[in-house]
Amino acid sequence: MPALVFDCDGVLADTERYGHLPAFNAMFEEFGLPVRWSEAEYGRKLLVGGGKERMATMLTPEFISSAGLPSDPAELAEHVARWHRRKTEIYTGIIASGTIPPRPGVRRIAEEAADAGWSLAVASTSAEASVRSVLQHVMGDALTPRFAVFAGDVVAHKKPAPDIYLLAVSEIGTPPGSVVVVEDSRNGMLSALDAGLSCVVTPSSYTGGEDFTGATLVVSSLGDPQETTRVLDDPLALHPTPFVRLDHLRKLLTEAAPHPARPSSRE
């Protein structure tokens, strides 16, 4: 049977702006770090895959000195790991509060896929605890156990490298030509395409201006009866209106040209 694989942040819910960013800034304040990311600055940080990796971009000699941090790389890595653990705790609390709504259509189409016997998965560069908290919030008790979760540091290189999707496809056991990925960013799309997979893009509040050339379908959201889909690019003429249904994804798999996967960089 086919597989439907979701990215997490920006796909299941618009968590970057309303979850991760405030969690980072709250953590910075707790640790007394001389930094607060604005919405625009955090948008630039999103070009770097992974929360620890984003924080590592701050570690200039000037920042290390002003924050009173050690210069030893191993000690610095321990600080970053500790910051990230606390940030994840704050973030999961934000998700548990229920203040960030799911994006339209993700639960509906996951239910359709589950009822049809498709495999379901989430593949994300975020920490596993963060991903599982969003998955539970969006999919609920009945559907969440149907998902395989691939997240965090399970691969050597994060998106846009294809590693996380190559791992997911290998573990799920579904041929690449039978896998549909839903992403919201160019980095995520490139990761999926380089793994040889078809990719549907639903841009989030941070990624609307990115280049999604190569995606099989680009839509404002998967859509629901209450919030219909706006088609942004439809190279296969799927015409997914008023919203994306499982039948559209089946047709996508039938008509999409296969993408040659490049080798994994997993260690």
TrEMBL record:
Q: Does the keyword Hydrolase apply?
A: yes
Q: Which InterPro entries match?
A: CbbY-like (IPR044999), HAD-like_sf (IPR036412), HAD-SF_hydro_IA (IPR006439), HAD_sf (IPR023214), PGP-like_dom2 (IPR023198)
Superkingdom as given in the UniProt entry:
Bacteria
Keywords carried by this UniProt record: Hydrolase
Gene3D superfamilies noted in UniProt = HAD superfamily/HAD-like, Putative phosphatase, domain 2
Q: Does the keyword Aminoacyl-tRNA synthetase apply?
A: no
GO MF annotation: an example: hydrolase activity
Matching SUPFAM superfamilies: HAD-like
Family annotation (NCBIfam families): HAD-SF-IA-v3
User: What name has this protein been given in UniProt?
Assistant: HAD-IA family hydrolase
- Organism of origin: Pseudonocardia yunnanensis
